[in-house]
Task: structure prediction
Amino acid sequence: MSPDGKYFYIYFSDWLANGTTHWGNTITVLSVARATISSVLNDAFGERPRAAAFQKYYHGWNLDQALGGYSQDLNPQGAYIGNQQVAYNAYLKRYQMFINQGVLIAYAESPDGMNWSIPTVLHDFRNDPDTPSVYDVPVGMGDNPSILGKQFYILYTRSPSNSGWDGASVNRFTISCP
Result:
């Protein structure tokens, strides 16, 4: 949700508008699209339910359509790219991003959901036995698990190398904010 409480934000990696399709230089680390909360609820529960129209951020909120529209990289200097999870931390009054890069989890934060710190490694699994592949998600300990607080969990799947999902498990570690 946006800081003003008017929009749903969706964060994702996207193709850059540079005309190429090479993974090495055309994927954004973090892009965002938004739709008003009222339009999402109306489109979902109105008389004629349908998917809500989102708009991507590209050099401002210029009403560029989300499907097929351009998007801007919100963290172009970010050293880590992968599946990202963004959550609001009510204790810190900041957005927190957790980036899953397969064998490590990186972390960045933002006061407004648009301007992000450079990601740093939060946890590196490469020294674990079997160097697992992981997927992560932050989970709050309060009434709403999507809102983080002074302490929260990082849930992650652990799949040992070369075993597929055989032997996979769900684990967690606790994060405590200063």
The longest strand covers residues 151-159. The chain has two domains: 1-74, 80-178. The two ends are 24 Å apart (CA to CA). The mean pLDDT is 86.
